[in-house]
Specification:
Blueprint: H1 5-26, H2 32-37, H3 39-42, H4 53-78, H5 82-107, E1 110-112, E2 121-126, E3 131-137, E4 146-148, H6 154-188, H7 195-249, H8 254-288, H9 292-305
The protein binds zinc ion.
The site of zinc ion has 8 residues, from loops.
């Protein structure tokens, strides 16, 4: 017997639900609805958890039974033939797949907001801004939890993400190097160490030391870049908030305010874009030239060019 189209859809549904449950198990504190809402943000090949295997086996068949049950009821109610019943089943299994595919496609244009980690709310102390937040809407994604490729701040956010990752990377490298440095120093200080071996070890140690210096300088650079980008996002949010509130409370002066909002936002956009472009160019330069004095130079350049950028 040839496999009916409804059976093929059924199998795809079962496999997809199983996969999503396995994936969900591997995600830390993520709601399953968030995964269904923005699948592309969470789906990573081979990222699955073994702890949700029982669910991944059990739930899809519950789902299939429920669909069969409801199609049966609807079929009886409408008095359809067996062919009609299969059409109902095909539709019932195809619709979720179409919805899922659409959601997946739409979410490929989005990124999880790095400032709030997709939660939409900011809480606690932000070490870059030195501001304490109390569960307010995220100043970066405005509470949405995601940034769309079309959003005005998308480039700033992308750059923020890149610099945060690089800062983290540099911190890890410093940690590893420092451990190596400590072990080597202990080895060199041994009493009975051979002269040539000692010389060789000292040579390696000095190379490790300069590598540490470089990674630390790089870390400082990325940290400054993150700080400046956060300030930029925060100021933008603040300016928009103030303009919004001014409009709300002072409708009489509508005319004046809209002119003010216009010039003010133009002023922001111009300086924002310039700063973002500058940081982007500097980050690219560092990636190309892995050299301590150049990183220190670029750090100075970054500081001078963003000097005027302070939290408002
Ligand atoms: Zn956010």
């Amino acid at each position: 017997m040839a496999m009916g189209i409804e059976t093929i859809f059924l199998i795809i549904n079962v496999l997809l639900i199983s996969y999503l449950l396995l994936l969900w198990g591997s995600l830390d504190k993520v709601n399953i609805w968030d995964v269904l809402k923005e699948p592309a943000l969470y789906i990573q090949p081979f990222k699955i958890s073994l702890t949700t295997i029982p669910l991944a086996i059990f739930i899809p068949w519950v789902y299939v039974s429920v669909i069969y049950f409801f199609c049966g009821i609807i079929g009886l109610f409408l008095g359809v033939s067996s062919n009609g019943f299969y059409t109902l089943l095909t539709t019932a299994f195809a619709v979720p797949l179409i919805i899922f595919a659409t959601r997946y496609y739409q979410s490929t244009f989005k990124t999880l907001c790095k400032v709030c980690n997709g939660k939409g709310k900011v809480d606690g102390y932000n070490e870059y801004l030195e501001i304490h937040f109390n569960h307010g809407d995220c100043f970066c994604c405005k509470g949405k939890g995601t940034i769309h490729a079309k959003d005005e701040i998308n480039k700033t956010h992308d750059l923020l993400l890149e610099n945060l990752l690089k800062e983290e990377e540099a911190i890890k490298k410093v940690e590893v190097l420092e451990k190596e440095q400590e072990e080597l120093s202990q080895n060199i200080e041994r009493k009975n160490i051979d002269g040539t071996v000692k010389n060789n070890l000292e040579g390696i140690l000095s190379k490790i030391n300069s590598q540490i210096e470089f990674e630390q300088a790089a870390k400082n650079f990325y940290r400054t870049a993150v700080e400046k980008l956060m300030i930029l996002l925060y100021n933008k949010h603040l300016a928009e908030y103030i303009l919004g509130k001014t409009k709300e409370f002072d409708e009489i002066e509508e005319q004046n305010i809209s002119t003010y909002a216009d010039t003010e936002s133009k002023k922001y956009q111009l300086s924002d874009t310039e700063i973002v472009d500058k940081i982007e160019a500097l980050v690219q330069e560092i990636a190309l030239r892995q050299n301590l004095s150049i990183v220190q130079e670029l750090q100075k350049e970054l500081e001078t060019s963003t000097e005027k950028l302070q939290i408002k």
